[in-house]
């Protein structure tokens, strides 16, 4: 892998931004045509409860084939099926246990994105599951109700594993999400929506070539595993729990008629109050829960060109697909919709983390495939926060590429963006944030409960190609005075995906 040559390659392209966006020169696709199929709703995972009250789930990663495109069969990977995985649902306070079997021909992992979980159960690159092997993970859910997700995290191959279909949602419920008057019947008026972009060869095979520097940009939008989906809606309003499960594509989501919707939750749970919006931006890995009124006429959810080019130069914006538009999902109202609750004025109390008492400040510069000038080393611990302390991290994208920033184990709060308070949409709990070039983010993070001198948590760019190329680092959470005791990893059998 040669960073400089890839960089030079990009700079060359940027001067002549023609036909770069992965085959979507027209920048359009119309999934909701005559061949439109109803949006598949991932089933809720079943669990068995043992005498101690722990709920046991099983996931098997395996290969299969899926009808992503109507009438065509595509080889894919999935959990407990051929594509994506069941939606896991658990309550705060509940203890959960997972048995994960790897039926794939290569090593993988299962990471609980957004979950506060002991490091050895986090499912990052240190918890490899060899083909045919089993891995067990268990913890007690202890965080606000939220829309989280799970996906593989094998070092160097995450993009490929997710692209082939390995991803699922993990919903956390608590007494606040129970009580809040929002649509909450799963699959009826509370709809999971995993948005991904894919590209196919003529025979329907997933095209895995990655011609851009942000990774694979598809020309076909796939929602919950199929292209061209629509959603029949039987209620006045619907709540969409949206995950950007793409490798590198950033979505500026809105409706074709510019209708207003309300953002009610971000990555880590409910916002303080619904935020009226006509657009919401999601970079890879981020989630948004929105509530939109559908009764009357069709509501067409679209990905629109980013009005601000996502902070990129024009040429780069085109090269990175930021100016493409796609139809994502047509919401079709019924003739006699069931009434929906009126939107509550407030949703949740978000206690601000206090950055004035921060034990440590750290800074992170994002550039090329590096953080602070270094690429991921499985055998290097970058730093070690002390448990029960609040830290302030300054994150700056000093590149001309788009990057984002994701941290394992915690949900953080954005203190300020270039010195100004975050907009309401970014004022709740986050685990992943889009970092446009040149902009400085200050984050407050509090590390609690779990310490481990051996197994680290990751922080990284969630553009999966960048992550695979090493735009990632690792930290241990330690007790005061505890010494790191990392385990030496033999990386000789692991390949980089680039
Ligand atoms: Cu969604 Cu480290 O990952
Ligand atoms: Cu994660
Ligand atoms: Cu990046």
TrEMBL record:
Where in the numbering of this chain does the Plastocyanin-like domain appear? 66-175, 367-478
Q: What is its EC number?
A: 1.16.3.4
Leader sequence range is: 1-21
Instruction: Give the UniProt keywords, A-Z.
Output: Metal-binding, Oxidoreductase, Signal
Q: InterPro entries attached here?
A: Cu-oxidase-like_N, Cu-oxidase_C, Cu-oxidase_fam, Cu_oxidase_Cu_BS, Cupredoxin, TAT_signal
What the entry lists under Pfam families is as follows: Cu-oxidase_2, Cu-oxidase_3
Q: What class of enzyme is it?
A: oxidoreductase
- Catalysed reactions, as listed in the record: 4 Cu(+) + O2 + 4 H(+) = 4 Cu(2+) + 2 H2O
Family, similarity comment: Belongs to the multicopper oxidase family.
The annotated subunit structure for this chain is: Monomer.
This protein's name: Multicopper oxidase CueO
Protein species of origin: Rhodococcus oryzae
Lineage, opening ranks:
Bacteria, Bacillati, Actinomycetota, Actinomycetes, Mycobacteriales
